Fold:
Amino acid sequence: MSAPLYERIKNYARQNRISFAMPGHKGGRGLKNDLLRLDVTELYETENLHHGGEHVENARRLLSDLYGSGESFILTGGSTAAVQSMICGAVKPNGLLLTSADCHKSVINTCALLGIRLNVFPKEIDGEFNVPLGAKSVKEYITDGTDAVIITSPNYYGVCSDIEAIASECHDKGIPLLVDEAHGAHFIADSRFPETAVRYADAVCHSAHKTLNALTGAAYLHLNGSLINREAVREALTMFQSSSPSYVIASSADTARDELATGNAWSETYDMCERFKEEMRKSGVKVFESDDVTRLVLNFSHFGITGFDVSRALSKKGIDVEMADLYNIVLIVTPSNTPSDLDALKKAIAKITSSGASFAPSPRVLPPPPCNQTLTPSDAFFSDRVKLPLERAEGRVSCASVSSYPPGIPVIYMGETIRREHIDYIKYILSAGGEVTGLAEGEITVTELR
Structure:
């Protein structure tokens, strides 16, 4: 008898590694110890998460009160289900959605499934760290016929957009603002964090599992105002999630909300991260000033090594980071991390940076800016298709989104014509040790006809 996946993950868990990746409970440190006993189905005594009784509704009310929303939902299908559902409530088929270039691939995939047109606007890139910066305004990109705007804030690097200003621009046009705040569920824990987008936007999603003590898949969705069709959102939530939601995941989302409302652990974590960043600067490692202090972005370009190199080296030392790119590593720190975790990280980085270069990244290698799609995501996805080696795909229309993962931001958008700069960038990422999704054995799916 063999259970290879179970055995692989169990072996990983036995190693007692230090995690600066999601989920926020860090290998179970922050979880309630009785969660497995809560794996039940929809019964008279347990209620139905999709058609809530007294206790489900009370949990939703407490969640709404905490974040200050008009209405909130507990999800077990992650922020992806939230993104799908709030787009459903804001844009009809053949409608137009405006999004930033650093959107998650779930936005493009939702547009493909629902037959929604997509307009992508570029993001400014920080010159020193090669990190996408937050948007201050979208007014120049809102065209006639735009039905809604969706913004990712914070992005994977902890950078926030000016949600208050963008919401005002959208509302002046009578259109809703949707915010993918998946990585900001903890913002309400301390006044030094950025303001939560729930204060200004019409729909906001949180991945509770990314930073809180919740199981993977736990998420929140918050709705405000009348610009979004709430009934459509409610129906969409039942369509995009399992009809048998996990009460283990839902219960962990509920307890994570309770901890957030009653504890002050995040204040200590904030201070711990500030001290660590100062120590890193003294050691010569460049530190990006994220809006979220607990999202650590460390840059190693002047050491002649890539973020991929550092990530792999740390992994061999039993330390996991959330993501790496050509220049940086990104770490998620939560109250389930300890000072000793950061001490071990500091010592490991000191050894790595003294060991010399292995792959010196070229300066300012940037992902190609997005262009207007040749086809809508839906037309591209449902078109007749063939597979071609990436090298031979120039000039063809992509049927899939190709992303460097994490963070899942597309390099090639579904429906976009593949350019030489796309091919060269992806090849460079792969040669430097990065991971790219959307390719299969070096081949990409493109439309059959040119």
Notes: The chain has three domains: 35-262, 265-353, 377-447. The longest helix spans residues 265-283. The chain is about 35% helix and 15% strand.
